[in-house]
Amino acid sequence: MNKMLFGIVFSFFWSSAFIAGKYALSYLPPLSFLSLRFLLAGIIFLGAYKLFHNIQSQADQCKTEKTTIKTPFFNKMLWRDAMILGLLNYTLYIGLSYSGLRYLTPELVVLIVSTTPFVTVFAQSCISKTWSKFLWFSIFIGFWGVAIVLVSRMGGVSGLIAQLQNPSVDNTFVIGVMWVLLSVLASATGALYYQYVAYSHNAVVLTGLQNLGAGIMLLPFISLVAWRQALDAPIFIASLLYQVVLVSGVAMLMWLQLIRWFGSGYASAFHLLNPIFATLLSVWLFDIELSVSDIIGTLMVVFAMGLVSLDLAKTKKLPFNVKQT
User: Fold this and answer.
1) Residue ranges per domain, the chain?
2) DSSP secondary structure string, 61-108?
3) 122, 255, 286, 307: which has the highest count of C-beta atoms within 10 A?
4) pTM to 2 decimals?
């Protein structure tokens, strides 16, 4: 599959998670739901890997007559990196963004999460001391596209200033925005950690352990009674399975592969497509009405994504020292 098309498909899966998550949050609080989702995803992916590994090992034994089988589970660095990434990519990033999702519409959450490239590119530029004016200009355009929509949702510039001058605990919109902004920092940190530290691990095992570790971290927030009641609802089950298989598993594997190909800064640029998919899905499923600001901001994000793609095609190489597989 073309790498750009691969990134676009990833963006669709990633952004649709918040659409599916909005349905699930009608039945369970964010952290309680996410603990169930992560535990199931971890068990499924690690179980699938173990089954495939056993089948492959038996086939190798028949060919080579070897009896010693090595598995990655005995790698201490794998467990360390999996727990750190589980904390960053799942417990904090998804936990905080889903907490914000309780107070915000899905497309707005995705829009804020789409600022992840700004954080990662800035951090990478500082680490590598590599500055691309073209890329910075692209990110600047994308940032203002996001900002236009966000400020509009807050009642314009005057509304934003008023809310900043008179913050209130009752202002659920601001609370939701703050939760999601914190999740962006966690996501960017997780991307950088994987790129520079944890990229050499088996992606399937790493993804499974991240999910399992995050699910265990969130166990103090669960409600077994609420779990049992939610599992009686077909919509909840459909949302759960979608997020377990296509988001926690497939989309995360795609994300790690994109980081391998492009580096975390360029890979994060695919998140700029997320508001487009999330907005279209929200309009379709939740009857969200778009304003002129929403349309202008979205077009700016599309334009910024096009500039980033041109820059990537122009360089035809990884911007930083990333292992290619």
Assistant:
1) 3-315
2) HHHH-------GGG-HHHHHHHHHHIIIIIIIHHHHHHHHHTTS-HHH
3) 255
4) 0.80
